[in-house]
Amino acid sequence: MNPHLESLQPYPFEKLRALFNGVTPPDLPAIRLSIGEPQHATPALIRDRLVDTLSGLATYPTTAGIDCLRETIAAWLQRRYGLPQVNAATQVLPVNGSREALFSFAQCVVDGSRPEALVACPNPFYQIYEGAAYLAGARPVFLNQTEENGFGLDLDSLSAAEWSRVQLLFVCSPGNPTGRVLDLDEWKTLFELSDRYGFVIASDECYSEIYFEEGAAPIGALEAAHRLGRDNFERLVVFSSLSKRSNVPGLRSGFVAGDAAILKRFLLYRTYHGCAMSVPVQEASIAAWNDETHVIENRRLYREKFAAVVPLLQGTLGVSMPDASFYLWARTPGDDTEFARELLARTNVTLLPGQYLAREARGINPGRGRVRIALVAGIDECVEAARRIAEFSR
Q: pTM score, two decimals?
């Protein structure tokens, strides 16, 4: 067996099941705000296109995807981020959701034979980053994001010697679970570090379309690169998905875009990886990327929920509006695991303990004493959950 499997920790939701073992919730409707699974309705235009193209199941799909899908994604990137040109043939690849791509990307770009190879990632973080690093033969190193540093990446915590061993840096903006968006100056610093030490940046942007003010969309990595004169996107690849944007987590559809030289090698890897997207899913994805009306409505629903929930929890859990995403990163009055377990036992509301999303680094676990609240349910459920949480926390 692969010895690196021994380094993997249980997934956060496995830890959550173990934590809740033996808990008997009260006789109240269960409200699950622990998992970031969108629960808004899937738009009819996506469902209809998927059904209308089911005949495509009779053909093997190509790994690179159909031209129309890549061209649609390139056009969306140009519209969304003000980019002058994205080459659909060389700078875009469809993938089966950002999770699959983030994991396989590390297997492609990390040279695990190099001594003491490192993969840097935010802390707290999406656990795929850590697992991808270990199974690529590297060791993850964590950049703490704390309230004291505004939930920014603690880049100074790595020495020059450590940065010289970093081969891949995972970035998540808007962040999971903090909702933090990197600004242009922060991207400039990351690009300078990449130039100095030669590592690749993998920018996870699956929450990019969940924000709160129309006309004020979060900056993305490709946009930042363009604004800083880096139009070849050297050593930069972004990952995006329809799951959150279009409420289709089961479609497993996303894309990677950026440095053409890296994507050429990633495509080669993927031809062996066996991860081509089926033609009906590609056709449904074209319909989704071409439409913004449903995305605007999706944002409106989240905006209503945040407006209703944040005032209810400000006084008890000290929550504040994130820059973007659909999470609240809330403080707990005591241990976060005990808080989550007792909350379930007394209110039948499920939240995710923050320490399950982070690792001990430089003497702290930056998720400890926090819970992640995913406002993915309907507004009535979210408001009811907030009321139960507030009453429990008093």
A: 0.97
Residue owning tokens 């600004």: 183
**Domains in the chain: ranges and CATH:** 3-41+294-393 (3.90.1150.10), 53-290 (3.40.640.10)
Confidence of residue 289 (pLDDT cuts 50, 70, 90): very high
CA distance 224 to 227: 5
Q: What is the pLDDT of residues 331-363, one digit of tens each?
A: 999 999 999 999 999 999 999 999 999 999 999
Q: Do the beta carbons of residue 100 and residue 275 sit within 8 Å? A: yes
Residue 394 has pLDDT above 90, yes or no: no
Q: How far apart are CA 290 and CA 323, in angstroms?
A: 25
Digit-coded pLDDT (tens) for 146-192: 999 999 999 999 999 999 999 999 999 999 999 999 999 999 999 99
Mean pLDDT of 81-85: 96
Closest CA to 245 of 226, 283, 218, 265: 218
Nearest to 133 by CA among 153, 171, 107, 155: 107
Residue pair 223/63 in contact (Cβ under 8 Å)? The answer is no
Dist CA 219 CA 210 (whole Å): 12
Long-range contacts of 356-361 (CB under 8 A, 24+ apart): 356/12, 356/15, 356/16, 357/12, 357/124, 357/125, 357/127, 357/176, 357/177, 358/123, 358/124, 358/125, 358/142, 359/123, 359/130, 359/140, 359/142, 361/123, 361/141, 361/142, 361/144, 361/157
Which residue shows structure tokens 């409106």?
300
**pLDDT band of 114, cuts 50, 70, 90:** confident
3 state DSSP class of 345: helix
Query: How far is residue 258's CA from residue 238's CA, in Å, rounded to a whole number?
Result: 6
